[in-house]
């Protein structure tokens, strides 16, 4: 396995290995001689980290989409969903295992307030429609850090495709 | 009375009395005792009957009808109270109404005798700071006659959206009523006020079944009068109730019948499977629950800025601004997001606009955004910032402020360099009601320039070709409205919800000039609203307009570009209800 491939996980590879991690009994039954292999230990560690990051990511997305203030990406983003036509998700874990970067192609709903600079916009606000939503395809880049065995989001940003 | 009964003041200019609760009660009490009047015969099959109505989330009403004009009602199992009432029926639908004596409340009840479904409209005064404004809450339910309760209900709908009627009531009242929204409507009183301009009001639309619907409107910002009627859409008949105080504070409470004509059906813009109504429901209360009688009402008179002549002079002196750089940070970016590009055709040209019975305006144009003007050949030339937009080949819309004019005038001009004709909407301030509210006069004239020989007699002319038309204007993402040209002198505008329902609506006086085939120069005045003079040079050949707005508020006097991509939503055939056709 090359170094690059060791540090890169696609959605497809994650799902394959995720299935392995989802079966702890089977994992526990792996012969000790295999677990003793350093390479395999590192791989399992990486897959565990990826799974934790994936879980953190999904949890965070749910918070964003629920409009929870603490999870807001910026004032305009109201919803993020997977862009299934986009590139596969990518989670790159640093060699020291203490930081990671996730790249996710997604569809973002951006809400922009209508400026109250004309009668029509004022009426739109008055009827409860004072914002305009549009969907855009973007790449979500998330920086993760690991402290005390727990992954956290350090920074998230969106770039236009 | 000879002639058309034009009112001395249109509705938006009447200073309606702020009635006290005592005044309202004093006028309601005798009416509650006797019930509503009716020109048409009342229904005669109520005497001796009883009716229990159950509503979802609303009152349970137990009625006993002692006669065809007297009932007793117990609300939610309470003490029965006697009241006068009146009822009308139409096919299997009946409508009756009564007040509750000793209160400022009452009901209009609509019952489907076949399905036993009921729509109950509770009505009351003193529910808003303007106590005369009738409040309403619509409940759906059924007549409990024992046995299993119906599982269906009447409900709000957009099925009437886009329809227009001419109604002739048994009272002699004739109206044009347009339903271009699922939450508002527009009405023109032809018989009472001459139909010069129309007005807009929040409305409910309820489907009883495919043949019968209920419409309501409350004349908010005006008299506060409430009207509700059932429409038999197949036979184009109506029966209804009207409750409220007129401009003379006389209480009107009567039932009516009417016959009508469908004047048209314009397009709707919801998705095809969407027949929902109540598109702009009221915001919930602080407890998250619906507020009884809550509704979204556009109240421009209350919210508009009102400046004195001195304040106007100050803001104009300090903050006059023509065609500022476009702000693109907002989702709306004003009304210029889809505007046509500014054009430099006028740069370097010298010409005269000679208006009939108006000024002679000389122009020397320096560049694409700076010109020099002089009026009537007098005084010095004055520099002004301007913009011009070519709406059709050789046809330009341009505008500029007239610095130094005592009423802070602005000229917005449709100049046809092919025909040598011009029309100017001359905006001005210091108008009688609020100094910052724009007025407008329409000037017709010719364009004199080397190489152009203007006509001697021909001019642009006012037109009724736009009368009854509905045009949607998409100014910017998220900012689309629809114009309804409801009378030869009215522009009404409707705001859409994100899912395409017509929502809030308002209106003002307007003017319509034909420039070329398919090209019209129009204005609207936001009187008792924001005071804006809005102008559009609409080209139906390219389905795009160019426009200029003229507005004065505390932030200054502004002339700014507007522009939209348009759609033709349809036309109401109402020419015959007005006395002129041009």
Structure description:
The complex is a heterodimer of chains A (161) and B (582). Chain A is of the alpha+beta class. Chain A has 6 helices and 6 strands, in the order αβααααβββαββ. Chain A has helices at 3-7, 11-21, 24-28, 32-35, 38-65, 119-126; strands at residues 8-9, 77-82, 90-93, 99-113, 131-147, 150-160. In chain A, strands 1, 2, 3, 4, 5 and 6 form a 6-stranded antiparallel β-sheet that branches. Chain B has 582 residues and is mostly beta strands. Chain B is built from 4 helices and 38 strands. Chain B is elongated. Residues 327-333 of chain B have low confidence and may be disordered. The A-B interface holds A 112-115, 117-124, 126-129, 131-134 and B 183, 280-281, 283, 296, 298, 300, 303, 327, 329-335, 475, 477-479, 481, 493, 495, 497-498, 503-504, 506, 526, 529-530, 532, 549, 562.
Please outline what is shown here:
The complex is a heterodimer of chains A (161) and B (582). Chain A is an alpha+beta fold.
Pair with the biggest interface: A-B, 20 and 34 residues
What Rg of chain A, in angstroms, do the CA atoms define? 20 Å
Could you give the distance between the termini of chain B? 27 Å
Say how many strands of chain A there are. 6
Backbone structural class of chain A: alpha+beta
Task: State the secondary-structure class of chain B.
Answer: mainly beta
Number of helices of chain A: 6
Fraction in beta strands of chain A: 25-35%
